[in-house]
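Support request from a user on the community tier.

User writes: "When I paste my structure tokens into the form, the page sometimes reloads and wipes my input. The last time it worked, I copied everything first. Here is what I submitted, just in case something in the input itself triggers the reload:"
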């Protein structure tokens, strides 16, 4: 089976608004243009993966079950827009983790590329043809460390950045 390109995207302040260790569904809110951006990627036939540092688990602010419930809600909201996230990888580690086994260093907390590399292996992804998007330099570094193109989302409407990415990397026929 041949490898295919994909999109790797950060969650907090890239897809959803971050209120500081956001995990409660009551706090769920999309970034402007996020759903449209994901629809554009899906319409281009690209698999979409979320890669997210979730150090609040290690710090004891919320549980992995809380985070999974938040992700289930995100997926159900996207299903209404005919978008599917292929897979979600998360890193529960943090330098200040209360749980000793979740203290860094680890190979998955961005800027380390572990989450991207793991998803690429699992889903047969062509990393040099893939793109990582996030709101922090550590997201861009993680993408580069994995061998992807990488973009920093600096706010505004995410769909605008996605149109540029589709044009740059996947041809004019996908940049609507």
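"...and here is what came back when it finally went through:"
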């Amino acid at each position: 089976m041949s490898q295919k390109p994909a999109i790797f995207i950060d969650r907090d302040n890239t897809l959803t608004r971050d209120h500081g260790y956001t995990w409660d569904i009551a706090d769920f809110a999309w970034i402007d243009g996020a759903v449209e951006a994901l629809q554009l990627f899906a319409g281009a036939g690209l698999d979409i993966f979320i890669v997210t540092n979730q150090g609040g688990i290690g710090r004891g602010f919320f549980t992995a079950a809380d985070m999974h419930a938040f992700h289930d809600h995100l997926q159900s909201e996207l299903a209404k827009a005919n978008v599917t996230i292929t897979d979600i990888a998360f890193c529960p580690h943090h330098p200040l983790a209360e749980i000793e086994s979740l203290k860094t260093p680890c190979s998955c907390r961005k800027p380390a590329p572990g989450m991207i590399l793991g998803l690429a292996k699992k889903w047969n992804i062509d990393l040099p043809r893939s793109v990582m998007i996030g709101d922090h330099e550590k997201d861009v570094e993680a993408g580069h460390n994995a061998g992807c193109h990488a973009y920093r989302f600096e706010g505004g409407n995410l769909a605008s950045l996605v149109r540029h990415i589709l044009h740059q990397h996947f041809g004019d026929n996908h940049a609507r």
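Agent notes: The reload is a front-end session timeout and is unrelated to the input. The chain has a mean pLDDT of 95. The CA atoms of residues 78 and 84 lie 7 Å apart. Escalated to web team.
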